[in-house]
């Protein structure tokens, strides 16, 4: 879906197809945040004042570029992960045997559908480290873009976490569901704390340096 | 820029051009959130169980579609609003007269550059009312998408507010700057409170309804 235009993707998102949905939007937000941290680094390299962080910024541009592409691929992966679930919903469930078979398919499909947003969350945590670095070492002329990256990345994490829950809550295997859910909430808490800290430091920097 | 692909737009955002930047990303987040609230309504209309809210959902789809398009246009408007500022920065400033003329141009340009993210904030508040309605009246099968819309819209508001500050803080006319800043912080607070309330209600709904 990364070859869709912004107009077409958002139009597609508006409709009644179950995907793209919140998971795809989360992945796109991840790509936007990765891009914004790369932007900060790109506005920093080559400036005399920031010669000392040149190598860090070059590495940041490389890592952010990789993450941006991975997030874009996750838009499609998230849509793919929904297919087995949609197929399982359509299975016949008249007889007891059919019901059991469908239940089994659903369970596998729900797990797969929960694992996809969990991968988005893991990438979000990875990207947050880049945003932290962009905010801390990048040029002050781009510091607001680092703050934006933090806010958008937090939204990506919150969307992804909701999309984990929406699947785990329907699973019968409480142990597996609980494990996925705990992992999701753990990463979400970490990302939220980190994002708030970055956003606040950017805000207070802007207020201080008139 | 709405005719750019997701891959191209995020690549462009990654580079060292000052626009698109945090303001454009904010507007795109607004479009994503408007699209997600339309998605909730689209998954609700035509369902017997939700016959009573049919008209509300039809209106929501219309309003969200309009806002989605307005947000997409704001990506370009935000980039346009930066041009006079870039031009003012390049003005000669050797003589006292040149300095005064440049200072005057800068002041006008900063104001215009602050007003653009303020418009994004105003649209964000408008969109938040739709997200509230989608979360409250929409089909429970899409409730997580309403939660995602709330989180992404909050990020849009936070990004836009940073982009107001980044301009007002450089203005000399403290009264005008203060007025823009107060208005921005007011709308931001409102959007954040509303978003948190919607996100929490969606989360607790999902936990409750296993």
TrEMBL record, chains A, B:
Output the Gene Ontology terms for molecular function: hydrolase activity
Alphabetical keyword list: Hydrolase, Membrane, Transmembrane, Transmembrane helix
**A Pfam family reported for this protein in Swiss-Prot or TrEMBL:** FTCD_C
Q: Which SUPFAM superfamilies match?
A: Methenyltetrahydrofolate cyclohydrolase-like (SSF101262)
Task: Specify the Cyclodeaminase/cyclohydrolase domain's residue ranges.
Answer: 5-184
Superkingdom as given in the UniProt entry: Bacteria
The membrane-spanning stretches of this chain are 25-45
**InterPro entries in UniProt:** Cyclodeamin/CycHdrlase, Formintransfe-cycloase-like_sf
Q: Where is the signal peptide?
A: none
Q: What is this protein called?
A: Cyclodeaminase/cyclohydrolase family protein
Organism field: Porcincola intestinalis
